[in-house]
Amino acid sequence: MQRYFLNENAEQHQRFFITSKDDIHHITKVMRYTVGDEMVVNFNQQQTFQVRIVDISGQSIEIETIHRLDIHTELPIKITVASGLIKSDKYEWLLQKATELGAYAFLAIQMDRSIVKLNMQKANKKLERWQKIVKEAAEQSYRQYIPSVNYCSKFKDVYDTMSEYDYVLMAYEEQAKCGETSNFKTTLSQVEEGAKVLLLFGPEGGFSEDEIDLFSTHATVIGLGPRILRAETAPLYALSAISYEIDLMG
To answer: What is the pLDDT of residue 248?
Structure first.
């Protein structure tokens, strides 16, 4: 059953209005739902309800909550994927797949070796598109939360926010080349429910020496196995490993 999101607090037998043009189009034109049909809506605090369509107009869709669904699809830890800017199509693919894998937030960073360069005007347009991609991926993958997407023009600004996280992991290909295999696994075994984790990844050209020096003494530098992964693949590998460890292994 198709999922949608509303930024509202909900209880049983309450009525709400869906006013997003994209959602209205998807509900009426793609899914072809009509009055009386049921669907699933995620509300604030990751509360999910089965709802019934009460009325459809050109401007809104009125729904009524029927009953709350006892489902839990979110990872129990909050993972922010912070990565250097990469080519647009690759980053959009990363956003979609990482949302499916449970990422809590995304941070696109202008790094020394980023081929892509953004000014704030371009960044704002990109953010709008990126947030739409993440929303659609969250709906498709039955998430109960839409990850946020933000842009950072200076890598040092990320360093200044390190205290907000319980763990900071920096994926560095030189660690993989040197055969480092334990840091990632060891850290995952220590992470507790509710922890905030920052995963750092470089752009196509990797981290610069200055960027490594900035973080290496304050972050856990990890390898991701013996194979060198692309900039858009490495975050997905890490998220998959975390999901396996937490969702399947407990």
So the answer is: 83
